[in-house]
Write a sequence for this structure.
């Protein structure tokens, strides 16, 4: 079992060498200057917090999702749309108190949840920060929006803190995982992580039925030219997650540039229709499917106080300005 790989460890990254995630970097992130694959020390850094209206309907709800974008990432997606924060280090350090205040302001502005984006490498600090926010009146669900490249240790740390899981299931093919995500072991860890998440949380909705209060929604991004990877994921979902989780099928893939080894085009219409037929073939009905809306104008720019288009998000906190008055 996957858990046995980590059963011998009881290492806290804030206390010494970090082996929190599957990378097993052994980097002494607590020392301040030493960074792991994620690019981060033991301090929590945030790039932005927004009321996000561009997520899935059951994430956005009626009030928008309180998205908090964490700097750094333990995956290496070559076409990452958030590269400014995942690989280029855009963001600044926040302590438990400031993080708690960010959560509370998002709640005050009507957010349906606190949506932690790419926080796996910062799990201990995030658990502390959410606990501090709960102590000060946070009542909306906490949502874990991750790549699913999680170790059992990460999942154990966030269990009891997270209400809704929003994991990616990027691929189940090791070659694709190595080529695009710099993690050939991604399929093994991600598959086990998603299974563990589904055991931890059953699907429940808020009183109005407009947003998830508990449960798992599995995201998958269709990569143009690599549809067999999508077919594998859809088959896995049908066999393991149908009736236990929702599916979010995304077609927003955007080329990362000439230097990237990833496809230099968006998903084509014929590819889109082929994937739709597979949904019918596998009997997958519960969830959401994104329309063909990819384009560079939809990419976030975290240099701006509002990294997103105005119709997608309203800024609450920015790494350069702190809290933003609207």
């Amino acid at each position: 079992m996957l858990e046995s790989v980590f059963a011998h460890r009881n290492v806290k990254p804030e206390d010494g060498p970090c082996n929190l995630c599957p990378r097993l970097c052994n980097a002494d992130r607590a020392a301040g200057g030493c960074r792991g694959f994620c690019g981060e020390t033991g301090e929590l850094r945030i790039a932005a917090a927004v009321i996000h209206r561009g997520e899935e309907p059951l994430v956005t709800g009626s009030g928008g999702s309180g998205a908090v974008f964490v700097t750094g990432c333990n995956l290496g997606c070559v076409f990452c749309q958030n590269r400014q924060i995942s690989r280029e280090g855009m963001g600044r350090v926040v302590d438990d108190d400031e993080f708690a205040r960010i959560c509370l302001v998002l709640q005050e502005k009507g957010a349906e949840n606190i949506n932690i984006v790419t926080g796996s490498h910062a799990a201990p600090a995030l658990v502390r920060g959410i606990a501090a926010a709960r102590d000060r009146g946070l009542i909306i669900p906490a949502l874990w929006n991750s790549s699913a490249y999680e170790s059992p240790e990460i999942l154990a740390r966030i269990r009891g803190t997270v209400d809704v899981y929003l994991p990616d299931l990027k691929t189940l093919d090791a070659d694709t995982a190595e080529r695009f995500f710099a993690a050939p072991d991604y399929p093994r860890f991600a598959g086990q992580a998603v299974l563990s998440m589904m055991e931890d949380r059953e699907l429940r909705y808020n009183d109005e039925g407009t947003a998830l209060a508990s449960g798992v929604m599995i995201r998958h991004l269709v990569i143009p030219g690599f549809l067999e990877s999508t077919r594998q994921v859809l088959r896995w979902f049908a066999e393991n997650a149908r009736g236990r989780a929702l599916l979010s099928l995304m077609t927003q893939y955007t080329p990362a540039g000439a230097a990237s080894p990833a496809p230099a085009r968006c998903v084509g219409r014929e590819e889109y229709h082929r994937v739709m037929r597979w949904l019918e073939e596998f009997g997958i009905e519960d969830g959401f499917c994104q329309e063909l809306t990819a384009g560079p104008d939809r990419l976030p720019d975290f240099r701006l106080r509002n990294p997103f288009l105005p119709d997608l998000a309203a800024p609450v906190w920015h790494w350069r300005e702190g809290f933003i008055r609207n």
Summary: The chain is about 30% helix and 15% strand. The domain at 44-323 is CATH 3.20.20.70 (TIM Barrel).
